[in-house]
Amino acid sequence: MLILMLGGCRQPESSSEASMRKVMEILDEAYTEVKSLKSESARSAFSIEVAVLQAKVGRTQSAQETLAEADKIARTLDDMQNRNTALQRIAIAYASMGLFEQAFKVAREIPLPQQRALALAGIAQELVKVGQAEQAKQAFDEAIQTARSIPMGAGVLIAAEIGLAQVKAGLFEQAIQTARMLGAPDLSHQLLRKVADAQAKAGQFQRALQTTTIMSSSGDRALALKDIAVHLAKAGQQEQARVYLGEALQIARTIPTALARAELLCALVHAQVEAGFNDWANLTLTEAVRIAQTEASAYSHLRAQIALAQAKVGFFEGALQSAEGIPSETDKILALSGIAEILAKSGDFEKAIQTARRVEHPERRAYTLTNIAKAQVKQGLGEPADQTFSEAVQSAQAIPDLVIRALALQRVALVQAKVGQADAALRWVRQLRGAEERAWALVSVASGLLEGDEEE
């Protein structure tokens, strides 16, 4: 009471309060940009994002008003695909605010079953977040039934995407059921791998191992076992990790196709290093290289995998030589990008940046430089990271396609804000020429501030 009576004497603003205030200011700035856009579709899309962020900072009334405006605009869009996609996002946005009745109403009004199914799956994920697991399962069931009504292979793809949402929500048994009903072995095994990996990450090692037994593909089972082994090693269970890496290695050696066998061995190299078995990884790499040299040297993708595996075990010069000899430009780009990121993780930022500059594709170069800058910040190298972020922005701005360029700039802004460099991000964001690019990048900065330094 005394503090209130003494004019000008107030408690200092906490860092979280200051951060929230900054987010609100950025959102107001972004929304001003949004309202100036001529494209109704763009205005609706921006308004949805702004509304979700407004809700996260406690501006509930403003969020609902912004989302209602987005809903109104979305229903007038001429393009049916844009209209349905906007309504899908609006339904999920309502759910993220806890307005589930409104969320289901919007979702069930969506004419196209693809977007309706994905909206229901998104609502289910939000239900899990607030502890309503049974309601979430029902929503997922409704989403799967909707996906089944979609003809041809599109319904299977949507169902697989719903399965991934079930994994993210922690509903592993339901995701396994979805995998079983897909009727597409490749998609089913990919989903089961995600389930096993998530179970192991959650410490459910026996259940993860049981999940691998459902897989009919030995190669996919080996990949799942190596994922589980890495989580076991991180949990301090080194001997168990060794057992399952050994089992995966035995499976890999039975793969009849040289290309698939060598690629699986390369994947195991990464897992062995992650689990702390560096000497073993070197032996596995030697085995993969021998196969590549004698049976599958013409496969560009395999050569990229070999280069990345070489980098993983610390043989960087050999990795770079291997990458430069890759005939496919796409595979070469991915190899150089991956090597640069491995170099950054090892702490050799100078060589990492030099390698990233050799990536000729501007989008991938921007992506790689952003990841290097993030690693620099984690090592306490704020000023060098700022320079690397600036170089990432320059690379992104060199992308000719407007949509891809905007997405690349958004990612740089998001990551830079996440790692505590929001002010630096705002400086270049506010200088962007296009109002739409500027608005999306501002929203990304606000998102980064709210999310903090989480894994992407």
Could you explain the architecture of this structure?
Helix 2 runs antiparallel to helix 25 (435-451). By secondary structure, this protein is an all-alpha fold. It contains 25 helices and no strands. It is globular. Helices cover 78% and strands 0% of the residues.
The helix count comes to 25
Structural class: mainly alpha
CA(first)-CA(last) distance: 45 Å
Return the string of H and E elements.
HHHHHHHHHHHHHHHHHHHHHHHHH
The coarse overall form would be globular
Percent of sequence in beta strands:
under 5%
Largest sheet, in brief, is: none
Spell out the blueprint of helices and strands:
Blueprint: H1 2-5, H2 15-35, H3 40-56, H4 60-74, H5 80-96, H6 100-108, H7 113-129, H8 133-148, H9 154-168, H10 172-181, H11 185-201, H12 205-212, H13 218-234, H14 238-253, H15 258-274, H16 278-294, H17 300-312, H18 316-324, H19 329-346, H20 349-357, H21 362-378, H22 382-397, H23 402-418, H24 422-429, H25 435-451
In short:
This protein has helices spanning 2-5, 15-35, 40-56, 60-74, 80-96, 100-108, 113-129, 133-148, 154-168, 172-181, 185-201, 205-212, 218-234, 238-253, 258-274, 278-294, 300-312, 316-324, 329-346, 349-357, 362-378, 382-397, 402-418, 422-429, 435-451.
Name its key features.
456 residues; mainly alpha; globular
